[in-house]
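Weekly modeling sync, notes
Attendees: S.R. (lead), two postdocs, one rotation student

Agenda item 3: backlog of single-chain predictions. S.R. asked that every request posted to the team notebook include the full sequence so nobody has to chase files. The rotation student volunteered to paste the first one in as an example of the format we agreed on. Action items at the bottom.

Example entry:
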Amino acid sequence: MKFLYSDTQDYVDPDYNFIEDRTAPGRKKYWDDMYAHEIMNPAPYDGLLVSMSALRQAEGVSTSKVRYSTAEEQRFLRDGARRFLRYGGPKFAKSMLMGDCGAFAYVEHEYPAYKPEEVVEFYDEAGFTHGVSPDHIIFDCDLSNPPSTQIAESTLNRYKITQQNAEEFLKLVKAEDFPFEPMGAVQGWSPKSMAESAKTLEKMGYRYLAIGGLVPLKVDAIHAVLKHLRSAINPETNIHLLGFAKADHIHQFLDYGITSFDSTSPLIRAFKDQKSNYFLPKSGGGIEYYAAIRIPQSIENTRLVRGIKKGLFNPEVLMKKEKLALATVRGLDAGTATGQDALSAVMEYHQFLLRGEGTDLATQEKELKTTELHVSRTIKDMPWKHCDCDICRKVGVEVIIFRSSNRNKRRGFHNLHVYHQHLHRTMDQ
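Predicted structure, as returned to the notebook:
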């Protein structure tokens, strides 16, 4: 099973100055920065997925969360995806480079933003190894498997459009003998309808299916989908799970013959999760999760700036508390400060974040106690000292500090590495 990371333009400045919190002098974004597969060895994933919607803005379609500039799009297609992403050469020659349409960008529209001929041309120009037919997302998944006569016309249209696009897409690929492997997109309103979609795609000639619509589904619903789907198609037909948000539960799905899946979850949780920002392998198997130590930049954090403007606290005092929190956490790492010193300094600064929100005192106290519980565990265990990945070995305690993109993304890269290793250990077992 291969783990693909969905490209979100995540790279870091390899020469970032953590003490002064600034990038290297003369640094040029992208050109001087490094992707996770460049800064870590081995790469923390088995392949990359790039969505067409990130590069090519369709008329009337909302902008994708990941957006390339026009110049970047032109260079991406001129140089090819591997060269642009610096994912080429002998080291990555056998790694998957997959393209899809990024259907979330046009989910509110009646029809997909891109026609099959546009998509085929895009995959060919970019040099992808695999490409998914243009689909139209169906979010609802009724486990009772209602017949099509009970389904809304708009949902049925999305189902039909996805099937028709897949048929036309495959014909175009075969007619021109394009070098990438076509993947048929599966959508449906129930486990049974998704299985029927998969069976139809297989009859068309697809040997690799991309299962969509899984993002909002709970674990039991995904199990139901895969049980129906796998029983309807040949065992040798490959399956890819698109946007598999339940990456932590992948061990539960090993019996379905999944060939590949993509997820951004390990990286995103580094800075969007409330308490599980840092991954660490458990000695007995699995993953341990730790909260990052939040020490935001006092003059840049939105909540802190809002509090200053409201006159809730003095900016000089704020900056003093910030510097003390940073110095004490670094002292903890160096052995010159105690865990209690670090916890006190961090929480003394953290209270300003809550006060800046203007919530009532009882709410503030409750949130402070919850945060203190999570942070005290991180300070006690010092998990960054137990990891030998390239990120943790080089930047040490900075990886656990929730502060600025260069720290947070490095923590995300670390999480990708831990998750990737966990996946391989799980499959070996």
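Discussion: group reviewed the output briefly. The chain has 15 helices and twelve strands.
Action items: rotation student to repeat for the remaining queue; S.R. to check formatting next week.
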